[in-house]
Amino acid sequence: MTEYTQILTEQRDDVLLVTFNRPDRLNAWTRTMGAELADAITGANEDASVGSIVVTGAGRGFCAGADIGAEFQAQLDGDEPSSHDDKTMRPAKNWVEMIRGSKPIVAAVNGAAIGMGLSMILSFDRIVAGTSARLSARFVKVGVVPELASSRFLPQRVGFGAASDLMLSGRIVESDEALALGLVDELVADEDLLDAAIARAKSYGENAPPHLLWVKELLTMNAGEEDIGLIQRRETDALNLAYKTPEHQEAVSAFLEKRQPDFRSL
Asked: Strand order of the sheet with strand 7-12?
């Protein structure tokens, strides 16, 4: 197993739990952390024993945004560190491409999810938050603009008006408002957060792996598509592929035999 310095990984049954591990800095993001996260996600996608992924933060915060000293000041000083320090790490391809092409991935947001700590999870399949969660698209407050396609994903989650308010003000949103806005999908007590996120991830990962990827691909392509005919053609093409899979046959057999389908043994 790869040794990481800024994240922790633990497999719980068929769920890979990834934990940001810079609690003394509220898990502020660095290039090293990003490379390690990308490597862990890529590894999980290649591991047949993993059905889904949960990402959370150690200590009091999920991720308080980019580490201003380690990242922004270094950039202003002309220091452009490599995308990852450890050359054994697999560098991240386009972040959204990686997440939308990944096995189901759920965020378990504990405490602060600020700036990049929020934008990195907007393309996740589900965001579960604890009551201590505080979220902010705070880019304007530090003189930058949104990234990681958050200017698309945030309006998709909360609507254009709310997204404009959140991004133009950079204000911090408490967990109850975040749920009301649709910024998070589920709100649970802090002590139940990991269990709830893992249970949700397991409910996704128990389904047929290729079909999960096709569903994610359809959602990604069709969410902003205006051509209804094209949407239907994409769905029909995917459906014709699905009909031919052993997973479809297993699902039909399981239904007729009154049992749960077993997609993992195929």
From this structure: 7-12, 15-20, 52-57, 105-109, 126-130, 186-188
Q: What residue ranges in the chain does DSSP mark as E strands?
A: 7-12, 15-20, 52-57, 105-109, 112-114, 126-130, 134-136, 173-174, 186-188
pLDDT tens-digit map of 25-57: 999 999 999 999 999 999 999 999 999 999 999
The tokens 């560190």 sit on which residue?
A: 81
pLDDT of residue 40: 97
Q: What is the CATH number of domain 7-205?
A: 3.90.226.10
Q: Which two tokens stand for residue 235?
A: 């769905």
User: How much is the pLDDT for 77?
Assistant: 52
Collapsing DSSP to helix, strand or coil, 73 comes out as: helix
The predicted model scores a pTM of: 0.91
Residue 65 to residue 21: CA distance in whole angstroms: 14
> What phi and psi values does residue 52 have, to the nearest 5 degrees?
-160, 175
Q: Hey, where are the domains in the chain?
A: 7-205, 209-256
- CB-based burial label for 131 (10 Å; 0-12, 13-18, 19+): middle
